[in-house]
Write a structure and sequence with these properties.
Rossmann fold; 42% helix; alpha/beta; globular; 4 strands
């Protein structure tokens, strides 16, 4: 799914810093790449969870969207939103647009199905 997201995002004009599947790689990427946004699944390989990634991103001032089946309770304190799986490419792009709008102080045009904006 991460590589599908990467393709969709690049096709939409976004620059994808990295697609990783461990907490350590994600934290390293956050600190080295200065991303504008992190998409974090809850379940990662190699120990740790997306909550650990969200904490690192939050500490670095990078907004996070959880993309997972069930949004963890800790998400509200660490993330800007949660997009429930399964989601469409259109829903992913609309969720990012909604986050962009919120960060810019504008009301989002629409919230896609399965997306909660905190």
């Amino acid at each position: 799914m991460a590589f599908d997201n990467e393709y969709v995002l690049r096709d939409a004009g976004y620059r994808v810093v990295a697609s990783v599947d461990t907490v350590d790689a994600a934290v390293e990427t956050i600190h080295a790449g200065s991303p504008d946004l992190v998409l974090a699944d809850l379940h990662l390989s190699g120990g740790g969870t997306g909550v650990d990634v969200a904490q690192a991103a939050h500490d670095a001032g990078v907004p996070v969207i959880f993309v997972t089946g069930a949004c963890p309770e800790a998400a509200r304190a660490l993330a800007i939103g949660c997009l429930a799986k399964p989601y469409s490419q259109r829903d992913l792009l609309a969720a990012i647009d909604a986050v962009d709008a919120k960060i810019a102080g504008r009301a989002p045009k629409r919230l896609p199905r399965g997306f909660t904006l905190f």
